[in-house]
Amino acid sequence: MRPRRSAGDGAGDRFEGSGSNRNYVLDVSGFSPSLIGTLPFGPVELFAKAGYYFYGVKLRVDLDAPGSDLRSKSSRDDLIYGGGIGMTFAEHLHVRAEYELIDLKNASSSDALWLSAPWRF
Q1: Does 30 or 110 have the greater pLDDT score?
Q2: Exposure letters 17-55 (e unless 16+ CB within 10 A, then b)
Q3: In terms of CB atoms within 10 Å, which end of the chain has fewer, N or C?
Q4: What does the alpha-carbon distance between residue 28 and residue 42 come to, in Å, rounded to a whole number?
């Protein structure tokens, strides 16, 4: 299965089951306010963060029959925490690696590894 994206839709795909083909679209969106603590060691810094992920989930399943779409919508909030290391180059370019654990109720493997390079003024 290859996930697809179209304007305004989340990730989706097509699957087969019980003799008919079906399409589904899953859209997850939200925001995550967090507190971050930093320990600077010259140009290198260690940091830890904790917060909550407030999000909504929308699911639409097309069962290939007129009028038989299934739709589901829910809102949740779950704990998010993590940490990482960063280093500043040329006084403004801050390169960092971060590992986040996102404690989603029905998606146990929702952790993320972030590599970023923000420019600090």
Answers
A1: 30
A2: eeeeebebbbebeeeeeeeeeeeeeeeebebebebbbeb
A3: C
A4: 39
